[in-house]
Each structure stands twice: as C-alpha cells, then as structure tokens.
C-alpha cells in the first residue's frame, strides 16, 4: 500500500517542505478509502510459448489507498465495450463484476484466463476493465481507474522458413509453436545452417503430430523427407 499511497501524499509533502515543516513519509493516510488498478496495461503473447500451453491466467492487480479492515469489502469492475475486442466466454473466461477485497487485505488480483486456441493468429486482443465506485470505495487517481489487458497468439514467420518450405509447406504459426515445444526454443537462420537435418527430424515429428490430430487443420506437403 505504501507505494500507491505516496502518489496522494507527494503534493502534501511538497507543501510541508516549502513551509519549513518536518515531513515523515510514514504518517498514515487519512481520507476516503480509495481503490486503484496497480497498472494501466498488461500484455501477454502465446507466440513463442510451447504449443502445449493452451491457456494463460493474467493477474490484474488491485490495491486500496487506506487501511485494511477486519471485514470483507466490495468493489466493482465493468468492461468498456468501445475499447474491448476480446469476447467473454470465447477468448477469455467471463468475469464477475462484483468482487471482494478480503478482510485484512490491502490488495487483491483479478484473474483473467485466456484461451489460446480461440485466438486468431494475427490479432492482438484487448479487454478494457474499469473500476466502479461503491459504498466501500471511491475511485483513486485517473490513471489507476482503468487497465487494458492485451493478449495475442501472433508469431511472425521467421526468415529461414522458405529454406525448409519444400518440407514444411506454407507457414502456419501452430507448426512453429509445436516445433518450439519439441526443440525447446525458437531457432535462427544460423541454427538451420548448423543443424538442418536435426531440425528437420523434429519438424517431421511435428508433421506426425498434426496428422494424428487433424482437428487443428494443420497440413504438410506430401513429399519425401531426407531424414
């Protein structure tokens, strides 16, 4: 709470200093109970994550300006439809608008669970959340009243792809993500020059995986492989 409270105390401290008064940073906040998001934006990309990572929970931080109390207190959020492109129940799990700061706590998180397979490969999605004033909390500073939660599955075609396209076919982000899962990391053009056949062996495993799992709609050319 101390870091957030200082945003409200700095102007007071400046006045005290100008007046020649002693100022102690740790004096308790006195005023309305306020609530803020801890950041104005969050971003996550599934791009280079292994293909087996199908979901991600992004944690949106919420903090109060004031003192913890011995009982639960309610706060509310809402979705800004004009600045939100993600669909609840499809791209992410729907969120409850009425939420709780637990007894004794000065902060909490809002978990946003994102579903990778529902994301278009070239799109960055945004979920814009806003805080709403309640009986327990007024809103804090303007920059803490809303947060943009952004996520994507984008992974651009690497420059070496055309060198292996005879076997790999057209670029598909899922081919490369499955490769990253099996190989352990993304690769570079230099890796192709040094380990071409080892890389092709792994891509052949990728091909077999998608042949056994046609639900993903990923296909490879019907050609002979040198490995």
Structure notes:
By secondary structure, this protein is of the alpha+beta class. It has four helices and nine strands. It has a five-stranded mixed β-sheet, with no helix packed on it. The protein starts with a helix and ends in a 15-residue tail after the last helix. About 4% of the residues have low confidence.
What percentage of the residues does DSSP assign to strands (E)? 25-35%
The helical percent reads 25-40%
Inertia-based shape: elongated
Q: What letter string, H or E per element, gives the SSE order?
A: HEEEEEEEEEHHH
Major sheet: size, sense and barrel closure? Answer: 5 strands, mixed
Work out the number of β strands.
Answer: 9
Low-confidence stretches: 15-24
Strand order, largest beta sheet = 2-9-7-4-5
């Amino acid at each position: 709470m101390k870091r957030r409270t200082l945003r409200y105390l700095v102007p007071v401290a400046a006045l005290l200093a100008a007046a020649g008064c002693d100022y102690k940073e740790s004096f308790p906040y006195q005023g309305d109970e306020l609530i803020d998001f801890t950041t104005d934006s969050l971003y996550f990309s599934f791009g280079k994550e292994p293909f087996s990572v199908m979901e991600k929970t992004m944690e949106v931080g919420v903090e109060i300006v004031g003192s913890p109390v011995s009982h639960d207190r309610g706060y509310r959020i809402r979705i800004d439809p004009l600045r939100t492109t993600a669909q609840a129940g499809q791209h992410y799990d729907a969120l409850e608008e009425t939420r709780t700061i637990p007894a004794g706590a000065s902060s909490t998180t809002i978990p946003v669970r994102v579903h990778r397979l529902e994301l278009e490969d070239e799109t960055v999605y945004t979920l814009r959340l806003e805080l709403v004033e309640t009986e327990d909390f007024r809103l804090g500073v303007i920059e803490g009243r809303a947060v943009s939660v952004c996520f994507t599955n984008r992974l651009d075609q690497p420059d070496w792809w055309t060198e292996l396209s005879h076997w790999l076919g057209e670029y598909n982000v899922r081919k490369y993500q499955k490769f990253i899962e099996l190989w352990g990391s993304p690769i570079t053009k230099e890796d192709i020059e040094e380990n071409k056949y080892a890389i092709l062996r792994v891509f052949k495993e990728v091909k077999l995986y998608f042949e056994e799992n046609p639900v993903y709609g990923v296909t490879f050319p019907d050609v002979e492989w040198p490995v």
